[in-house]
Amino acid sequence: MKADLHVHSTVSDGSFTRQEIISLAKEKGLTHIAFSDHDCTVDFDKVSTLDNDIKIIPAIEISAYDFESGKKVHVLGYGYTNATPLEQLCRPTLEKRNANCLKQIEILAEMGYDISAEKVQKYSNTCIYKQHILKYLYDTKQSEELFGRVYLEVFKNGGRCDFDIKYVDCRDAVKAIKEAGGLAVLAHAGQQENYSTVPKLCGCGLDGIELFHPSNDEKAMGIIKNLATEHDLFLTGGSDFHGLYERGGKDLGDFTSPENPIISGAM
Fold first, then answer.
1. Most exposed residue of 37, 85, 142, 232, measured as fewest CB within 10 angstroms of its CB?
2. Helix or strand or coil: residue 127?
3. How many angstroms separate the CA atoms of 228 and 232, rounded?
4. 3-state class (DSSP) for residue 72
5. DSSP track, 140-185
6. Model pTM?
7. Do residues 167 and 135 make contact, with C-beta atoms less than 8 angstroms apart?
8. For the segment 5-46, what is each residue's pLDDT rounded down to a tens digit?
9. How many other CB atoms are found less than 10 A from the CB of residue 57?
10. Backbone angles phi, psi at 60, to 5 degrees
């Protein structure tokens, strides 16, 4: 088996449609993929029927925060059967993210860029993400590259659009996934260095932790393996594929998962 359990599509902030990703997955020889789009459950009950040759697992990546440690925490949910708890938790996040991007678009217009919400909305299926703004600026030749000067000077490093929203509590993210009938997995802990969050998440029902990920270096993977052993967590892996919408991102299938209950179906 060859499983990429961390994949984003145009449903959230990926540049490839789900059908395009399925075609690419076949070229890569993948047997399992999980569409873990950010904070949304669009067509979760239909993804398993999109293709007969690849096992497609319903998934979600919830953007959350540990307010005690001040760390961002992303929680992956797999195999859930009831989207209602997840939608109730994540809908405000999507609304705030969309409003945040609309404010960034207003600021860019004030700065002299030829941009409007209507023009950027064409890049989005639902919520507008920062990546959609950057792609619009690139396509209209107002930025030399997706993650070039505009990104670094305006959206990062204290630029005028360098502001974010308030996310849900990480414990509520795990609880919602469990209530939805899914398995909860801590994503890319090496990226956000939120290892101290693991015990409190385990108290809410955390099932696993992502081991193989582009941002998890050897040191991080050592810590993650120890945490998994200490707290009886299974291990997962994935490329965190966003297509064009990830600075220095890896290709689909570059990081795959060890065998676990998500892949084996023991859920």
1. 232
2. coil
3. 5
4. strand
5. TTSSSSTTSHHIIIIISTT-TT----PPEEHHHHHHHHHHTT-EEE
6. 0.96
7. no
8. 999 999 999 999 999 999 999 999 999 999 999 999 999 999
9. 24
10. -155, 150
